[in-house]
Design goal:
With 156 residues, the protein is mostly helical. The protein has one domain. 77% of the residues lie in helices and 0% in strands. The chain has 5 helices and no strands. The longest helix is centred in the N-terminal third of the chain and has 47 residues.
Length: 156
């Protein structure tokens, strides 16, 4: 309570209403993401099953067939990583999703030198982001011990 407000003051009831709305929106969003993830998994299954006859009709003596197989597999992996991202909201899942997107783009045979350069720079940036943001070991100083572990070692 602020400045002597009573528990039934209009300000207090608005804060409770805001909290309730926020909770309901958050719950709706979680369930909507789960439903979208389930739809995406179903689409992955349908696409994978549909790819079998398409790939079996292709000429396997051609290099393009292998590229098509890799392209389809990476598309399936990207879709599954997107499902993982929707369900976990994990930073590593997002970085891995972006890495697969970049890898899939780099397999296109019609890339220019600039496209390749941009893709390599983006991939290196993802590796750096993972190292700095997601890897708990990156929080260690060059000596190898975290500040907490260093303090414990000095106390002994």
């Amino acid at each position: 309570m602020r400045n002597g407000e009573s528990p039934t003051s209009p300000r207090r009831s608005l804060e409770g209403l805001h909290g309730e709305i926020s909770h309901r929106v958050r719950a709706f969003t979680v369930w909507a993401e789960r439903i979208l993830a389930a739809i995406l998994v179903a689409a992955v299954i349908v696409f994978a099953i549909g790819s079998i006859p398409a790939m079996s009709r292709m000429d396997w003596s051609q290099t393009e067939t292998l590229y098509e197989l890799i392209y389809r597999v990476l598309l399936l992996v990207i879709a599954l990583e997107l499902v993982r991202t929707l369900l976990t909201h994990d930073l590593i899942a997002i970085l891995e999703l972006l890495a697969f997107v970049i890898a899939r783009k780099m397999l296109k045979p019609d890339l220019t030198s600039i496209d390749i350069l941009i893709s390599v720079v983006a991939f290196v940036a993802l590796l750096g982001a993972r190292w700095f943001l997601a890897d708990p070991r990156s929080k260690r100083p060059p000596g190898g011990l975290s500040a907490e572990a260093q303090g414990q070692a000095e106390a002994r």
